[in-house]
Amino acid sequence: MRKIRKGVCIIVLWGMIFTGCASSGGGKSVPSNAMGILWGKDYEKSYWPENEMASLIPEPEFDLGRVEWESEYGFAVSVAEIHEGEFNKYAAACYQKGFNINYQKGSAFFCADNKEGYHLILKTGENDIMYVRMDSPWRCGNDWNVREIHN
């Protein structure tokens, strides 16, 4: 069962990178990572989503980021200039905010649910970019079947 959860988490991590809508604006340009994915241009100082779900986790204390996509069922944000120690502190802060059910953590990722069933994924890689994605319980249950596998 643990292998299935880990596999699903990894698949979701890769899948989330390729989904979402791009936004534009004036800001710092960040290069692509080792996988050849352009994380985005135009990072802004004020970038945290305004939906209710974003308040379930701490707003990162980093200067540059951007909302990749946002909807009623979730959001994705990329945050620039994050180092491994900062990533680990942020993952620990999310854990303390209640994302501590079915959690999995590695040196470059963290994924967990909270008691309401929201699913959080944090991923970091080269170029000091952190990707944050949260999905609502119904999105996880109906779209990816993550909740069914985690139970």
Write the layout of secondary structure elements.
Blueprint: H1 2-17, E1 65-71, E2 74-79, H2 84-96, E3 101-105, E4 109-113, E5 119-124, E6 130-135, H3 137-144, H4 146-150
Antiparallel strand pairs: 1-2, 2-6, 3-4, 4-5, 5-6
Largest sheet strand order:
1-2-6-5-4-3
Number of helices: 4
> What structural class should be given to the helix and strand makeup?
alpha+beta
The dominant shape is: globular
Describe the main β-sheet briefly. Answer: 6 strands, antiparallel
Helical fraction:
25-40%
Could you give the order of the helices and strands?
HEEHEEEEHH
Instruction: Please report which band the strand proportion falls in: under 5%, 5-15%, 15-25%, 25-35%, 35-45% or over 45%.
Output: 15-25%
Unreliable runs: 10-14, 16-40, 141-151
Domain count: the total is 1
Look at the structure and give the mean pLDDT.
74
Oligomeric state of the chains in view: single chain
Number of strands: 6
Q: What distance separates the N and C termini?
A: 9 Å
Rg, Å, rounded: 14 Å
